[in-house]
Protein backbone atom coordinates (compact mmCIF):
# COMPACT_ATOMS: atom_id res chain seq x y z
CA UNK A 1 0.00 0.00 0.00
CA UNK A 2 1.14 3.53 -0.79
CA UNK A 3 2.35 5.34 2.34
CA UNK A 4 3.27 9.00 2.68
CA UNK A 5 6.64 9.69 4.27
CA UNK A 6 6.90 12.71 6.55
CA UNK A 7 8.75 14.67 3.82
CA UNK A 8 6.01 13.82 1.33
CA UNK A 9 3.41 14.80 3.90
CA UNK A 10 5.01 18.18 4.44
CA UNK A 11 5.18 18.67 0.64
CA UNK A 12 1.46 17.90 0.36
CA UNK A 13 0.75 20.32 3.20
CA UNK A 14 2.87 22.96 1.50
CA UNK A 15 1.04 22.44 -1.80
CA UNK A 16 -2.29 22.72 0.02
CA UNK A 17 -1.13 26.01 1.49
CA UNK A 18 0.04 27.24 -1.91
CA UNK A 19 -3.35 26.30 -3.35
CA UNK A 20 -5.10 28.19 -0.60
CA UNK A 21 -3.04 31.30 -1.22
CA UNK A 22 -3.42 31.00 -5.01
CA UNK A 23 -7.21 30.97 -4.52
CA UNK A 24 -6.90 33.89 -2.13
CA UNK A 25 -4.88 35.97 -4.59
CA UNK A 26 -7.63 35.69 -7.20
CA UNK A 27 -10.29 37.05 -4.85
CA UNK A 28 -10.42 40.78 -4.75
CA UNK A 29 -12.76 42.17 -2.14
CA UNK A 30 -14.12 45.64 -1.71
CA UNK A 31 -13.77 46.63 1.92
CA UNK A 32 -15.87 49.54 3.15
CA UNK A 33 -14.77 51.10 6.45
CA UNK A 34 -16.93 53.64 8.30
CA UNK A 35 -14.73 55.49 10.77
CA UNK A 36 -14.77 58.84 12.56
CA UNK A 37 -12.91 61.84 11.15
CA UNK A 38 -9.63 62.76 12.81
CA UNK A 39 -9.20 66.32 11.48
CA UNK A 40 -6.48 68.29 13.27
CA UNK A 41 -6.08 65.52 15.83
CA UNK A 42 -5.11 63.06 13.08
CA UNK A 43 -2.36 65.43 11.91
CA UNK A 44 -0.99 65.81 15.44
CA UNK A 45 -1.32 62.21 16.54
CA UNK A 46 -0.27 59.40 14.18
CA UNK A 47 -1.31 56.85 16.82
CA UNK A 48 -4.95 57.86 16.20
CA UNK A 49 -5.49 54.79 14.04
CA UNK A 50 -9.27 54.54 14.06
CA UNK A 51 -9.99 57.72 12.08
CA UNK A 52 -10.71 58.15 8.37
CA UNK A 53 -7.28 59.69 7.79
CA UNK A 54 -5.27 56.82 9.32
CA UNK A 55 -7.60 54.04 8.12
CA UNK A 56 -6.74 51.60 10.94
CA UNK A 57 -3.20 51.60 9.56
CA UNK A 58 -3.78 48.97 6.91
CA UNK A 59 -4.50 50.54 3.51
CA UNK A 60 -1.09 49.53 2.09
CA UNK A 61 -1.32 45.97 3.39
CA UNK A 62 -4.86 45.60 2.08
CA UNK A 63 -4.12 47.04 -1.37
CA UNK A 64 -0.88 45.06 -1.67
CA UNK A 65 -3.02 41.98 -1.07
CA UNK A 66 -5.14 42.96 -4.07
CA UNK A 67 -8.19 44.36 -2.29
CA UNK A 68 -9.96 47.69 -2.48
CA UNK A 69 -10.49 49.93 0.55
CA UNK A 70 -13.11 52.67 0.72
CA UNK A 71 -13.12 54.76 3.90
CA UNK A 72 -15.77 57.26 4.95
CA UNK A 73 -17.31 58.92 7.98
CA UNK A 74 -20.44 59.92 6.05
CA UNK A 75 -23.06 57.49 7.36
CA UNK A 76 -26.44 59.19 7.76
CA UNK A 77 -29.33 58.79 5.35
CA UNK A 78 -29.91 57.09 2.00
CA UNK A 79 -27.54 59.40 0.11
CA UNK A 80 -24.62 58.87 2.46
CA UNK A 81 -21.35 57.42 1.17
CA UNK A 82 -21.92 54.49 3.54
CA UNK A 83 -25.23 53.52 1.93
CA UNK A 84 -24.02 54.12 -1.62
CA UNK A 85 -20.77 52.18 -1.26
CA UNK A 86 -22.43 49.38 0.71
CA UNK A 87 -24.31 48.32 -2.43
CA UNK A 88 -21.09 46.88 -3.89
CA UNK A 89 -19.09 46.07 -0.75
CA UNK A 90 -17.95 42.55 0.18
CA UNK A 91 -16.78 43.39 3.70
CA UNK A 92 -17.96 46.15 6.03
CA UNK A 93 -15.78 47.48 8.85
CA UNK A 94 -17.50 49.64 11.46
CA UNK A 95 -16.73 50.93 14.93
CA UNK A 96 -19.09 51.36 17.88
CA UNK A 97 -17.75 54.92 18.40
CA UNK A 98 -19.21 56.34 15.20
CA UNK A 99 -21.55 53.48 14.33
CA UNK A 100 -22.87 52.88 10.84
CA UNK A 101 -26.25 51.34 11.64
CA UNK A 102 -26.59 48.29 9.39
CA UNK A 103 -30.35 47.66 9.32
CA UNK A 104 -32.19 44.70 7.77
CA UNK A 105 -33.22 46.98 4.92
CA UNK A 106 -29.61 47.94 4.18
CA UNK A 107 -28.49 44.31 4.31
CA UNK A 108 -31.03 43.57 1.58
CA UNK A 109 -29.53 46.33 -0.51
CA UNK A 110 -26.02 44.88 -0.17
CA UNK A 111 -26.10 41.69 -2.27
CA UNK A 112 -22.33 41.11 -2.20
CA UNK A 113 -21.86 41.66 1.52
CA UNK A 114 -20.40 38.59 3.27
CA UNK A 115 -18.70 39.82 6.42
CA UNK A 116 -19.09 42.64 8.96
CA UNK A 117 -16.15 43.35 11.21
CA UNK A 118 -16.49 45.56 14.26
CA UNK A 119 -13.24 47.33 15.07
CA UNK A 120 -13.85 47.24 18.81
CA UNK A 121 -16.41 45.43 21.00
CA UNK A 122 -20.23 45.46 20.67
CA UNK A 123 -22.00 44.74 17.37
CA UNK A 124 -25.49 45.91 18.32
CA UNK A 125 -25.39 48.51 15.53
CA UNK A 126 -25.78 45.57 13.16
CA UNK A 127 -29.16 43.85 12.83
CA UNK A 128 -27.91 40.43 13.92
CA UNK A 129 -31.19 38.67 13.12
CA UNK A 130 -31.05 39.95 9.55
CA UNK A 131 -27.34 39.09 9.38
CA UNK A 132 -28.25 35.52 10.36
CA UNK A 133 -30.95 35.32 7.72
CA UNK A 134 -28.35 36.28 5.11
CA UNK A 135 -25.71 34.06 6.78
CA UNK A 136 -23.28 36.95 7.13
CA UNK A 137 -20.29 36.51 9.37
CA UNK A 138 -20.25 39.21 12.07
CA UNK A 139 -16.96 39.42 13.93
CA UNK A 140 -15.51 41.75 16.54
CA UNK A 141 -12.23 42.10 18.41
CA UNK A 142 -13.46 40.71 21.70
CA UNK A 143 -11.45 41.83 24.70
CA UNK A 144 -9.49 44.46 22.77
CA UNK A 145 -10.64 47.47 24.78
CA UNK A 146 -12.11 46.02 27.96
CA UNK A 147 -9.44 47.38 30.34
CA UNK A 148 -9.87 50.82 28.73
CA UNK A 149 -13.61 50.70 29.46
CA UNK A 150 -13.13 49.40 33.00
CA UNK A 151 -10.74 52.28 33.77
CA UNK A 152 -13.25 54.77 32.39
CA UNK A 153 -16.11 53.27 34.41
CA UNK A 154 -14.14 53.47 37.66
CA UNK A 155 -13.05 57.02 36.81
CA UNK A 156 -16.69 57.97 36.20
CA UNK A 157 -17.73 56.56 39.58
CA UNK A 158 -15.05 58.62 41.31
CA UNK A 159 -15.91 61.75 39.33
CA UNK A 160 -19.58 61.45 40.33
CA UNK A 161 -19.25 60.28 43.92
CA UNK A 162 -16.62 62.92 44.78
CA UNK A 163 -18.57 65.63 42.88
CA UNK A 164 -15.58 66.45 40.68
CA UNK A 165 -17.31 68.04 37.67
CA UNK A 166 -18.92 70.99 39.54
CA UNK A 167 -15.72 71.49 41.57
CA UNK A 168 -13.65 71.76 38.40
CA UNK A 169 -16.22 73.99 36.71
CA UNK A 170 -16.35 76.29 39.73
CA UNK A 171 -12.57 76.59 39.83
CA UNK A 172 -11.85 77.06 36.11
CA UNK A 173 -14.94 78.63 34.57
CA UNK A 174 -16.46 80.50 37.52
CA UNK A 175 -13.06 81.41 39.08
CA UNK A 176 -14.76 80.61 42.38
CA UNK A 177 -13.73 79.20 45.77
CA UNK A 178 -16.85 77.90 47.47
CA UNK A 179 -15.87 74.71 49.28
CA UNK A 180 -19.25 74.15 50.90
CA UNK A 181 -21.11 74.27 47.61
CA UNK A 182 -19.16 71.24 46.39
CA UNK A 183 -18.66 69.42 49.70
CA UNK A 184 -22.44 69.35 50.30
CA UNK A 185 -22.61 66.46 47.80
CA UNK A 186 -19.14 64.92 47.89
CA UNK A 187 -18.56 61.41 49.33
CA UNK A 188 -15.90 58.72 49.56
CA UNK A 189 -16.24 55.69 47.33
CA UNK A 190 -14.99 53.57 50.24
CA UNK A 191 -17.74 51.74 52.15
CA UNK A 192 -20.27 52.07 49.36
CA UNK A 193 -22.17 49.12 47.89
CA UNK A 194 -21.49 48.68 44.19
CA UNK A 195 -23.27 46.34 41.80
CA UNK A 196 -22.63 45.35 38.22
CA UNK A 197 -25.31 44.25 35.79
CA UNK A 198 -23.27 41.78 33.74
CA UNK A 199 -20.10 40.07 34.96
CA UNK A 200 -18.35 39.38 31.68
CA UNK A 201 -14.93 40.75 30.81
CA UNK A 202 -15.60 44.40 31.69
CA UNK A 203 -17.76 43.74 34.78
CA UNK A 204 -14.97 41.64 36.30
CA UNK A 205 -12.24 44.16 35.50
CA UNK A 206 -14.28 46.91 37.16
CA UNK A 207 -14.71 44.88 40.36
CA UNK A 208 -11.00 44.00 40.38
CA UNK A 209 -10.17 47.68 40.18
CA UNK A 210 -12.69 48.65 42.87
CA UNK A 211 -11.66 46.10 45.45
CA UNK A 212 -8.67 48.06 46.80
CA UNK A 213 -10.98 51.02 47.50
CA UNK A 214 -12.55 49.01 50.34
CA UNK A 215 -16.12 48.73 49.11
CA UNK A 216 -18.73 47.73 51.69
CA UNK A 217 -20.06 45.08 49.31
CA UNK A 218 -19.70 44.15 45.64
CA UNK A 219 -22.75 42.54 44.03
CA UNK A 220 -23.48 41.25 40.56
CA UNK A 221 -26.41 40.10 38.49
CA UNK A 222 -25.84 38.06 35.33
CA UNK A 223 -27.78 35.20 33.86
CA UNK A 224 -24.56 33.24 34.03
CA UNK A 225 -23.73 32.80 37.72
CA UNK A 226 -20.00 32.54 38.43
CA UNK A 227 -18.56 29.55 40.24
CA UNK A 228 -17.73 29.96 43.92
CA UNK A 229 -13.99 30.12 43.29
CA UNK A 230 -14.30 33.06 40.85
CA UNK A 231 -16.73 34.87 43.16
CA UNK A 232 -14.23 34.53 46.02
CA UNK A 233 -11.33 35.69 43.85
CA UNK A 234 -13.28 38.77 42.79
CA UNK A 235 -14.78 39.34 46.23
CA UNK A 236 -18.33 39.62 44.90
CA UNK A 237 -21.74 38.17 45.69
CA UNK A 238 -24.48 37.01 43.31
CA UNK A 239 -27.96 38.53 43.47
CA UNK A 240 -30.63 36.61 41.57
CA UNK A 241 -32.57 39.50 40.05
CA UNK A 242 -31.79 42.91 38.67
CA UNK A 243 -34.44 44.51 40.92
CA UNK A 244 -32.85 43.02 44.05
CA UNK A 245 -29.45 44.19 42.86
CA UNK A 246 -30.38 47.82 42.26
CA UNK A 247 -32.34 48.13 45.52
CA UNK A 248 -29.15 47.42 47.52
CA UNK A 249 -26.60 49.49 45.63
CA UNK A 250 -25.21 52.98 46.06
CA UNK A 251 -23.48 52.63 42.68
CA UNK A 252 -24.70 50.56 39.74
CA UNK A 253 -22.58 49.88 36.65
CA UNK A 254 -23.98 48.46 33.40
CA UNK A 255 -21.87 45.90 31.56
CA UNK A 256 -24.22 43.88 29.33
CA UNK A 257 -24.55 43.90 25.55
CA UNK A 258 -27.49 45.64 23.90
CA UNK A 259 -30.08 43.39 22.24
CA UNK A 260 -33.85 42.97 22.40
CA UNK A 261 -33.68 41.43 25.90
CA UNK A 262 -31.70 44.33 27.42
CA UNK A 263 -33.05 47.32 25.50
CA UNK A 264 -34.46 50.02 27.81
CA UNK A 265 -34.06 47.91 30.98
CA UNK A 266 -33.17 51.01 32.99
CA UNK A 267 -36.56 52.68 32.67
CA UNK A 268 -38.69 54.66 35.13
CA UNK A 269 -39.88 51.51 36.87
CA UNK A 270 -36.47 49.97 37.53
CA UNK A 271 -34.94 53.34 38.44
CA UNK A 272 -37.70 53.78 41.06
CA UNK A 273 -36.43 50.57 42.72
CA UNK A 274 -32.91 51.98 43.09
CA UNK A 275 -31.78 53.53 46.39
CA UNK A 276 -32.75 57.23 46.31
CA UNK A 277 -29.68 59.27 45.40
CA UNK A 278 -27.74 56.38 43.82
CA UNK A 279 -25.22 56.81 41.02
CA UNK A 280 -25.64 55.00 37.70
CA UNK A 281 -22.70 54.39 35.36
CA UNK A 282 -23.24 53.20 31.81
CA UNK A 283 -20.27 52.58 29.56
CA UNK A 284 -22.05 49.70 27.79
CA UNK A 285 -24.72 51.09 25.44
CA UNK A 286 -26.97 54.16 25.64
CA UNK A 287 -30.14 52.29 24.66
CA UNK A 288 -29.91 50.01 27.72
CA UNK A 289 -31.61 52.96 29.42
CA UNK A 290 -34.57 55.20 28.60
CA UNK A 291 -32.89 58.55 28.15
CA UNK A 292 -35.85 60.70 29.28
CA UNK A 293 -36.30 58.57 32.42
CA UNK A 294 -32.64 59.05 33.35
CA UNK A 295 -32.87 62.83 32.93
CA UNK A 296 -36.10 62.95 34.99
CA UNK A 297 -34.52 60.85 37.77
CA UNK A 298 -31.61 63.28 38.02
CA UNK A 299 -33.98 66.19 38.19
CA UNK A 300 -36.08 64.58 40.93
CA UNK A 301 -33.08 63.45 42.98
CA UNK A 302 -33.87 59.74 42.59
CA UNK A 303 -30.48 59.56 40.88
CA UNK A 304 -27.62 61.65 42.27
CA UNK A 305 -25.54 61.19 39.14
CA UNK A 306 -25.34 59.52 35.78
CA UNK A 307 -22.23 59.08 33.70
CA UNK A 308 -20.71 57.12 30.89
CA UNK A 309 -19.77 57.52 27.28
CA UNK A 310 -22.55 55.91 25.29
CA UNK A 311 -25.70 57.43 23.81
CA UNK A 312 -28.25 56.33 21.26
CA UNK A 313 -28.07 57.28 18.48
CA UNK A 314 -24.44 58.26 18.03
CA UNK A 315 -23.39 60.98 17.61
CA UNK A 316 -26.00 62.21 20.10
CA UNK A 317 -27.90 65.19 18.67
CA UNK A 318 -27.36 68.60 20.29
CA UNK A 319 -30.81 68.51 21.93
CA UNK A 320 -30.25 65.06 23.50
CA UNK A 321 -31.42 65.29 27.15
CA UNK A 322 -28.12 64.02 28.53
CA UNK A 323 -26.30 67.02 27.07
CA UNK A 324 -27.87 69.30 29.65
CA UNK A 325 -29.29 67.14 32.46
CA UNK A 326 -28.11 68.01 35.97
CA UNK A 327 -28.82 66.93 39.54
CA UNK A 328 -30.46 68.94 42.29
CA UNK A 329 -27.23 69.74 44.16
CA UNK A 330 -25.08 71.71 41.72
CA UNK A 331 -27.34 72.34 38.73
CA UNK A 332 -25.53 75.48 37.57
CA UNK A 333 -22.17 73.72 37.52
CA UNK A 334 -23.28 70.57 35.71
CA UNK A 335 -23.68 68.50 38.90
CA UNK A 336 -24.40 64.80 38.49
CA UNK A 337 -23.56 64.69 34.80
CA UNK A 338 -20.39 62.77 33.89
CA UNK A 339 -21.15 62.13 30.22
CA UNK A 340 -18.47 62.07 27.52
CA UNK A 341 -18.63 61.20 23.84
CA UNK A 342 -17.95 57.50 23.16
CA UNK A 343 -14.26 57.48 24.15
CA UNK A 344 -13.79 54.87 26.84
CA UNK A 345 -12.92 52.02 24.49
CA UNK A 346 -10.90 54.06 22.03
CA UNK A 347 -7.85 55.12 24.01
CA UNK A 348 -4.71 55.07 21.87
CA UNK A 349 -3.67 51.81 23.52
CA UNK A 350 -7.05 50.27 22.70
CA UNK A 351 -6.86 51.46 19.09
CA UNK A 352 -3.57 49.67 18.60
CA UNK A 353 -5.15 46.45 19.87
CA UNK A 354 -8.40 46.59 17.93
CA UNK A 355 -6.72 47.73 14.70
CA UNK A 356 -4.39 44.71 14.95
CA UNK A 357 -7.35 42.46 15.77
CA UNK A 358 -9.35 43.75 12.79
CA UNK A 359 -6.40 43.10 10.48
CA UNK A 360 -6.11 39.57 11.87
CA UNK A 361 -9.83 38.92 11.24
CA UNK A 362 -9.45 40.09 7.61
CA UNK A 363 -6.34 37.98 7.20
CA UNK A 364 -8.24 34.95 8.52
CA UNK A 365 -11.03 35.58 5.99
CA UNK A 366 -8.61 35.83 3.09
CA UNK A 367 -6.42 32.90 4.12
CA UNK A 368 -9.36 30.62 4.83
CA UNK A 369 -8.41 30.28 8.51
CA UNK A 370 -11.25 29.99 11.04
CA UNK A 371 -11.90 33.01 13.24
CA UNK A 372 -11.19 32.73 16.96
CA UNK A 373 -14.40 31.59 18.68
CA UNK A 374 -14.32 34.59 21.01
CA UNK A 375 -14.48 36.98 18.03
CA UNK A 376 -17.49 35.41 16.31
CA UNK A 377 -20.83 37.05 17.07
CA UNK A 378 -22.86 35.27 14.38
CA UNK A 379 -21.79 32.92 11.61
CA UNK A 380 -23.59 30.59 9.18
CA UNK A 381 -26.99 31.80 10.35
CA UNK A 382 -26.33 31.19 14.08
CA UNK A 383 -25.31 33.09 17.19
CA UNK A 384 -21.89 31.93 18.35
CA UNK A 385 -21.17 34.53 21.06
CA UNK A 386 -22.74 33.59 24.42
CA UNK A 387 -23.21 37.28 25.27
CA UNK A 388 -26.44 37.86 23.32
CA UNK A 389 -28.24 35.64 25.76
CA UNK A 390 -31.77 34.86 24.71
CA UNK A 391 -30.59 32.76 21.78
CA UNK A 392 -28.95 30.08 23.91
P1 LIG B 1 -18.85 40.04 27.70
O1 LIG B 1 -19.52 39.29 26.62
O2 LIG B 1 -17.53 39.59 28.20
O3 LIG B 1 -19.85 40.12 28.96
C1 LIG B 1 -21.21 40.38 28.84
C2 LIG B 1 -21.92 39.77 30.04
O4 LIG B 1 -23.29 40.17 30.02
C3 LIG B 1 -21.90 38.23 30.01
O5 LIG B 1 -21.42 37.74 31.25
C4 LIG B 1 -23.37 37.85 29.80
O6 LIG B 1 -23.71 36.64 30.45
C5 LIG B 1 -24.08 39.05 30.43
N1 LIG B 1 -25.45 39.26 29.98
C6 LIG B 1 -25.94 39.30 28.72
N2 LIG B 1 -27.26 39.55 28.74
C7 LIG B 1 -27.61 39.66 30.03
C8 LIG B 1 -28.84 39.91 30.68
N3 LIG B 1 -29.99 40.09 30.01
N4 LIG B 1 -28.85 39.98 32.04
C9 LIG B 1 -27.71 39.76 32.73
N5 LIG B 1 -26.52 39.53 32.17
C10 LIG B 1 -26.47 39.49 30.83
O7 LIG B 1 -18.78 41.54 27.21
P2 LIG B 1 -17.80 42.71 27.69
O8 LIG B 1 -16.54 42.66 26.94
O9 LIG B 1 -17.75 42.73 29.18
O10 LIG B 1 -18.60 43.99 27.16
C11 LIG B 1 -19.91 44.27 27.60
C12 LIG B 1 -20.52 45.35 26.73
O11 LIG B 1 -19.82 46.57 26.94
C13 LIG B 1 -20.38 45.10 25.22
O12 LIG B 1 -21.40 44.27 24.74
C14 LIG B 1 -20.46 46.48 24.67
O13 LIG B 1 -21.80 46.82 24.40
C15 LIG B 1 -19.93 47.38 25.78
N6 LIG B 1 -18.61 47.93 25.45
C16 LIG B 1 -18.48 49.29 25.43
C17 LIG B 1 -17.29 49.87 25.05
C18 LIG B 1 -17.09 51.35 25.07
O14 LIG B 1 -16.17 51.84 24.39
N7 LIG B 1 -17.87 52.11 25.78
C19 LIG B 1 -16.15 49.03 24.61
C20 LIG B 1 -16.35 47.62 24.82
C21 LIG B 1 -17.57 47.10 25.17
UniProtKB/TrEMBL annotation:
Keywords: Cytoplasm, NAD, Oxidoreductase. Signal peptide: none annotated. NAD(+) binds at residues 201-202, 222, 257-261, 283, 309, 342-345. PROSITE patterns: D_2_HYDROXYACID_DH_1 (PS00065), D_2_HYDROXYACID_DH_2 (PS00670), D_2_HYDROXYACID_DH_3 (PS00671). SUPFAM superfamilies: Formate/glycerate dehydrogenase catalytic domain-like (SSF52283), NAD(P)-binding Rossmann-fold domains (SSF51735). The record marks 285, 342 as: Important for catalytic activity. The keyword Nucleotide-binding does not apply. Belongs to the D-isomer specific 2-hydroxyacid dehydrogenase family. FDH subfamily. Catalyzes the NAD(+)-dependent oxidation of formate to carbon dioxide. Formate oxidation is the final step in the methanol oxidation pathway in methylotrophic microorganisms. Has a role in the detoxification of exogenous formate in non-methylotrophic organisms. Homodimer. This is Formate dehydrogenase. The gene is FDH1.
